[in-house]
Amino acid sequence: IPLNKDSIKFTGPIQFNMGRSLNKINIKHIKGTGAFASSEGKDNKTFREEYILPYSVIAFHGLINENTARYTKLSDDDIELLDESTWNGTKNLITRSKMGHMPRIYIRVVYKDNLNYFIGDLQRKVSLSTDMPDEKLRNIDDYKLNIDKLIDSLIKNKEKIEKVIFIKDDEFKLLYKSKEINLVSDIKDIKFENKGI
Questions:
Q1: Biggest alpha carbon–alpha carbon distance for the chain
Q2: What letter does residue 91 receive in the DSSP assignment?
Q3: Quick one: which of 121, 110, 95 has its CA closest to 158?
Q4: For 94-111, how does the pLDDT look when each residue is reduced to its tens digit (9 = 90+)?
């Protein structure tokens, strides 16, 4: 592409939306103090305030734009790295503010070539199934992920889908039509491929 400008901008070929909590949450405001080591005889203390989420199941979705990818030279190897870094990067968030963040499921829909098509808004097609009040959820055993709308949407668009790649925490339970399922063995209309990182 001939360009006559001093600088150019590219929109990245991969874009993610803001995550949203699948469960209702109560944000807690906490105050604290901290003491820091300094030179002998000095007493350095500070006050801090922060807002925390006691527990939240956050869903988000992204899009790989095949048109932009051509110009930025996004490769299949780059996409493989995306899968791994999204999963492992979330798992290895070990700062104080992100301690305990854990990936539970990652799904990437691979569409057939040159369709310029995507379903979109996939995070709105999942919900939590639980007998507890949302604000009381505290661990992975307190709920299951209902994927009825997601699977139905994938099946409806199956002619445009090559396969669906996923990574899943072994303890994370998925519900489809009120039954716990295994994506690979129980869903026959779509080719699911477990990346198993």
A1: 73
A2: H
A3: 110
A4: 777 777 789 999 999 999
* Whole-number Cα distances in Å, 186 to 28, 156, 179: 40, 17, 10
- For 9-37, letters b (16+ CB in 10 Å) and e give eeeebbeeeeeeebbebeeeeeeeeeeee
**Which regions in the chain score pLDDT beneath 70?**
1-8, 10, 34-45, 197
* Beta bridge partners of residue 179, listed in sequence order: 176
**Model pTM greater than 0.85?**
no
Q: Write the DSSP assignment of 175-192 as a string of letters.
A: EETTEE--HHHH--SS-E
How far CA 33 is from CA of 48, 50, 51, 96, in Å, comes to 6, 11, 15, 15
